[in-house]
Amino acid sequence: MKTDLTITNVASKLPAVVPPLEREVARGGKLAVWTSVRQERWEGELDVEGEIPLWLSDTYLRNGPGLWHLGDYSFRHLFDGYATLVCLYFENGQLVMGHRQIESEAYKAAKKSNKFCYREFSEVPKHDNFLSYMGELANMFSGASLTDNANTGVVRLGDGRVVCLTETIKGSIVVDPNTLDTVGKFEYSDSLGGLIHSAHPIVTESEFLTLLPDLVNPGGEPSPGRVHSFPVTEHYVIVPEMPLRYCAQNLLKAEPTPLYKFQWHPESKGFMHAMCKASGYIVASVEVPLFVTFHFINAYEEKDEDGRVIGVIADCCEHYADTTFLDNLRLNNLRTYTGNDVLPDARVGRFKIPFDGSPKGELVSALNPDEHGRGMDMCSVNPAFLGKKYRYAYACGAERPCNFPNTLTKIDLVEGKAKNWYNEGAVPSEPFFVARPCATEEDDGVVISMISDKNGEGYALISDGTTFEEIARVKFPYGLPYGLHGAWVPKN
Prior knowledge:
Helix content is 9%, strand content 35%. It has helices spanning 20-28, 105-113, 130-142, 248-252, 324-328, 331-335; strands spanning 41-46, 48-50, 59-63, 65-67, 69-70, 73-74, 82-91, 94-101, 153-156, 162-165, 173-175, 182-185, 202-203, 208-209, 236-241, 244-246, 262-264, 270-276, 282-288, 293-303, 309-318, 347-354, 362-365, 377-380, 392-397, 407-412, 417-422, 427-428, 432-435, 445-452, 458-464, 470-475, 485-489. Strands 1, 3, 4, 7, 8 and 33 form a six-stranded antiparallel beta sheet that branches. Strands 2, 28, 29, 30, 31 and 32 form a six-stranded antiparallel beta sheet that branches. Strand 5 (69-70) and strand 6 form a beta hairpin. It is globular, with a radius of gyration of 22 Å.
């Protein structure tokens, strides 16, 4: 067993610190998923119900916003929380779980002063006077006051380093996957500059691809469209341009608007661009119907009978150009769910980008959205099929009525079908696919998700990637807050 994470009952040494509002929610049981992590760290070996495959032997890391209060002050939005990194270490059919706060400068400063010192997603520092306000504005434009709270994603680089990320470039932090220690800032070696980038870079053993919106010279548009993620194929980087665009006026406001630092510009239309990896040239730019997506699933090239690329297919979690889901993620909305069906509809949106010079592309549903309850987000695929034609994806869907994605779903894009896992009152996090070594079938592996149960407890759920049936679950010592995205970290 991995010695530096095999520490049992650490929880008894640290007190739980939960603010008054969250104590009330936790006692109710149903919404413990939206409460702050009970303590700064815990590590220990856990009992397994069922059977974990012996070949599953390495580390799964999940990142997300897990601390949503300072003293008695409760944060506004899901994305404001300070990052909590959770580790599941598998070996010989056993599991060790640990979690720890990522020690960003923003987190350390807030912990020391008991107040916000950096700009989070919806929270801004409170100012004592006009001069301090003006100074903070200057720091915002220089990037000094932007948060480095790396609470969104986690990736393993080709050289073995593990980096936690958010949309600010300074929020790229190296962590030790064995101890969960914060190692330090990740330093980019290029000279591109910029303040923000995609929270989901494309990382392989040989590539690190990201997109940097140009906030200064947006190319004739009101401002750059938000690019939270993007897909790639073997030869092309696909650049989405949606009309949900950055807004300087909203950034300056002390109180958030419903779209926070963005603004909806339908008159600017929606576009998809295909850029050649080798040359850097745009080979296709097509107008597409208005869309809103934060998470792309995958993309691949279409070829004619002679093997020439004639276009690209790009799939995403698309919200029918509806921006309201962003404000639905206010913590007060999540914590006070009354049973009404308020989750906005979503689908597997499929972009068709032709390479024949056509000015327009298409956006269609890749399968009937009713197959997954008209909810769709937090997808993963077999990484061996990244940028290639694929059949299966794993995601969070919906069993309605609900206010948040509450199912796990396996999507078959060939048959146009979905198989769903649902446990009443539970909230699952991103299903992460891990392929069996030497597998020859795309869905031969397991799917890992961390579940927050309706009674306030939590567990890791391991499902068979082919049948999508549960094969094991491992109960945590207490329920964990909702997490966002994960990564598989092999020993070597």
